[in-house]
Amino acid sequence: MSDNGFGERLHALRTGAGISQEQLAQRAGISVRALSNMERGRARGPRLRTVEALVAALGLDGVVGQELEDAARLGRPRAVGGTGPKSSAGTGPGSGAIGEHPLALPRDLRDFTARGRALEDLRVLVERGDPAHPAVVVVCGQPGLGKTAFAVHASHVLAPGFPDGQFAVDLRGMDPKPTAPREALARLLHAFGVAEAAVPAATDDRSGLLRSVLRERRVLLLLDNAADEGQVRPLLPGHGPSLTLVTSRRSLAGLESVHRTELALLRREEAVELLTRVIGPDRVHRESQASRDLAELCGHLPLAVRIAAQRLASRPGETLTKLVAQLAEHETRLDHLEAGSLRVRAAFALSYQQLPPSARTVFRRACLADGPDFSPTTAALLADLPLRQAARCTQHLTDAGLLQPHPTADRYRFHDLLRLFAAEQLAEEDEPAHITAARDRADRWALRRATAAARLFDTEPHPETPPDPAAAVADRDRARIWLEAERPQWLAALHRAHTAGHHQQVIDTAQAMHWFSDRTPHWELWAQVFRCAVGSARALGSRRDEAVHLNYLSWAYNMCLYDHTAALTAAQHALAAARECGDQLQIGWALGYTAGALHRLGRTEESITRLHEATEHLRQQTGVPSRLAELTVLNSLGHHLRQVGRPHEALTVHRRSEAICRAGVPGQLPELIGLYLAVTRQHLGNDLAALHRWNEAEEPLRCALTHFEAAQMPAWSEPARLDLGIVLRHLNRHHEAHTTLTTAHDALVRLNNPRQIKAADELHQLNSVFDIAGHPTD
Fold this sequence. Notes:
By secondary structure, the protein is mainly alpha-helical. It has 38 helices and nine strands. The strands form three sheets. It has a five-stranded parallel sheet, sandwiched between helices. A two-stranded antiparallel sheet has the order 6-7. Strands 8-9 form a two-stranded antiparallel sheet. β8 (404-405) and β9 form a beta hairpin. It is elongated, with a radius of gyration of 36 Å. The model is unreliable at 78-96 (pLDDT under 50).
């Protein structure tokens, strides 16, 4: 038999069966390149399971299949260091496959779960391999994601496509002294059959020899637990059909020309599947809800799920519900995520101990941030570091897999279990006084910044105050983005300021928020803001401030929480406080807010009576703020009149509001009066619609919508869009009505606005009468 007996026999069998290389490769589950290498003699002795797959794919009988296996066995080199004939493995290129060696792959996990997409991406990469640029894949991500388990599993799955051998080296990247490239190169060269005396002394020479050895071989290298780019580069093939898998807790961002596989957390169903494979389906099915809860409490982190599963497997009489109850305790959760030598805390500690001191401080202190994520500025304040240094630390923590970056914003977040670990380190390493100072420092800045940002939306003129350079915000767009992103931070700071007795600061911040809250009534937190302010006003004994913020609180209950009973109570308390301190403006507002709550409680006639009382009261006041309050109350009065079937009266009331707006209010910014006029026009359009004057209703509604959109006020523009869509439907402009109503409905759903129900009903009516072409349906 020739040197290429196996390849020649395989080629004859394939062509005799009348199938292509692509067809046979697909049937056998190997790559076309691997099959081509076999037939050309570049891989003379594939392993037994590869041959068995080819025999099955070709449909060979026992005798012919055995002959093919015998040919493969003859092509396999003997083990290095064995007593038989020497292996053909040498120091030169093209020296053949490698037999037994000390760098064999670790065992694959029988219960390995998920990662199908990442594995398929690797398959595709191997299929499309380019010998001129050997594939290098970096598998990275936070501790506990199962990077090594994935890489080992992938290596076993892909092994048939690499008949010249698979080699694994643990680079010990988390050790105090990771494996030196020179040492790793020596181990690889020895495994390839290079005699010890033939291994060069210099690292560069060893690297060059490895590249030469790998040039013609189809080998899979697994470089596990890499420390950094400098450790990996000398170990990479320069040419040939090899595949190198590198795992690292760091991103190895400086490694050039590599493919990246960033493993994600498991989905809940994948976490439950892993649990099922370890402890069996019967226990999982008996406690299906506890299984899902367990996945959540493990944060869908593969290591945590496996530890929980291994612990349950070792205690067959223990229920999942018991472990769920133990993990539900935040303070001790990491204590329970241990199973023998497997410990979540230990996995995290390895990465933490590698950090420089400043990054450790940022990591620990960042757990004090409120909300799901935080900015580098918050990290800097908590760590008491310059912003530039703190930003570098967040990048370092991201590279180490200890923080997760936001995909579009300069913000970072913890995995839930890493946050618990950070809190443990904080308690162990930081003095209580330092923790308190860190939180106070961040809170003071957050409230100053929130106050400055919110004041940009204040449309009432107020005395100029010196800007705070440390908390300044450039413009409204940036202010809105910051206020939204930092909601949990400044809201928690407000609560803590109230608890600490910084009452004037609480009142000032809440007052600054007033106009901005009008733009975001879908934020339920406004009730918390104004409750804090009411409490602080009472603590200071200021009945006027109490009346002001009780009125704001009534608005929040009505517009944000839809708790109209609480809104009525708050307005009544505001009215009592305003009368006690003689604040005529707040009396007018309290009467108006009382009417709003009564109306929403279905007590419409009482609400109309209160609004008439408020209108008369405010009309008698001479101050500019009273005119603005009068406009609001008049618009509410007209709205209530229209809803009880008195649209002619409503139209008259709203014409009066329009006249006040057109006349202008001395001392007020045109922007503010323009906003009031837009609100009035929306009411006028709805009055005209209630009178079935559809053609006249369209123009004022369009004007209102245009103004609200220009002001970027979706909580106001989308109800106006709905009103316009209703008018368009009655005008039989069906395509335009459908587009308008659909846009309004989708936005109102996002805003959790109750008028989404009306929008859905209008769309249903439109769709039930007319098809998409605008023709009547049968």
